[in-house]
Structures are given as structure tokens and as C-alpha cells.
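Entry for the shared binder. Reason: the reviewer on the internal report wants the predicted structure included alongside the sequence.
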Amino acid sequence: MTFLKNQLKNNRFLMIVILAYVAVGIFAPDKFLPSLGNTWYYVKEMLMIMPVILLLTSLISAWVPKETIENAFGKNSGLKGSLFAFLLGSFSAGPIYAAFPVCKMLLSKGASIANIVIILSTWAVIKIPMLITESKFLGPEFMLVRWVLTTLAIFLMGYITSRFVKPEDLPADDEAAAALDGPIAVNADYCVGCGLCAKISPSHFKMVDKKAMVISQTLSPGDGLAIKDAVAKCPAKIIRFYR
């Protein structure tokens, strides 16, 4: 029962969406199938895009030092960081929802809130492919004026957001929260499902829906070596051992 309550709590938005579809099916049955078809279209798109994005963010998280992200996008990066954020958003590919795991990873590595706002906003409204298409259909003058005004608004939004929203106002990172409960933490969002950790240390890890999870925080003599081995061999580098 506790497990079911936790699942419902962690998937509240999904439950609301399901209830909304049930309501549409009851009160507007003629709109049910078209809306279901649109949903399936976007689900298929996400299934093609998100695994690649999650893999890339996992690799960046594992291979790029925190100091590098802080220097490029951190609070003290100044105008250079804002320009890097602007360029990252401008030359990005994929729909806007692909930007969220990227930005979450950058935040966890020390990027500032202002630069995250710049990345998200630029990714959404002034990507290079979008500007090319806009120029073709609406004309280069329209595109240029709109680009200048939107760019100014994006930098202003980044500054204002950083004044009102502080890092401590954001949800705690999964790894940091897990560290409070014990010495072992797994960031399952970026797990690639290889199962190595469960094979190396089955008393502490197991696979659930192709995602690694910690099943025990209790350490016996010699367990530390197996866990450190699992940390070292994890291809996505998503296991932390706080010892």
C-alpha cells in the first residue's frame, strides 16, 4: 500500500492526465480518439529523442568536471557565461522538452539560474533552424527585428529570474537527497539499464523496470570494495558512494 501511495504521489501529473482523458471519453467521445492520436504522436517522438538526450547528459555529467561547467555557465561566469548559454540554446536541436534534462544536469554541475533561463528561452524561440525557416516565410527584416527584441527579452528574463529564484528554492537533486538517507546513491534518471551494479553487489542494488535502485544502505565488512567496484564500472557514472 505504501508503494502504491508513493507511486501515485510521484506521478500526480500523469494521474491527472489519465483522469482528463477519461473525462473526455465520457463527456466528449467524438474528441477522444483524435486527442489520443495526437498524444501517441508526441509519445513516439519523445521515445525517439529522449533516450539519446539522457545518454548524452549522462556522458557529459560523468566526463565534464564540475569546475568546467561552473567556469562556463556558473554564477561568476559573467557575460561570457550568458553568451555561452545563448549559443548553446541557439545551436541546439530537438524540441524544448529535450532541454530540461540538459538544464537539470547543468544546474547540478553549478550553472547559474540566469544562464539556465537563457538556455531554455533561446532553445524554445530563437534556434538557428527556426530563424532560417522564419526568414523564408516571413522575410529577413521580420526575422531580424523579432530576433533582436526576443534576445533582449531573454537576457532580461534571465536577470529577473535570478533575482527572485535562488538555488535553494529548486527541488533537491535526487543524489543529494539520497545521500541523506545513506552512503549509497543512484541517479536512476540517467541509468542505461546495463545491470552491472546488481551483478557486482546484488545485496545493495537491483534492477527495477531496467533502472538501478538501492535496496540496502547497510554495510557489512568487505561491502565497500564491491560497491566501489560498481561505482567504477558503471558506464553512466550515476552511482555515488559517500564513504
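Summary line for the report: The mean pLDDT is 86.
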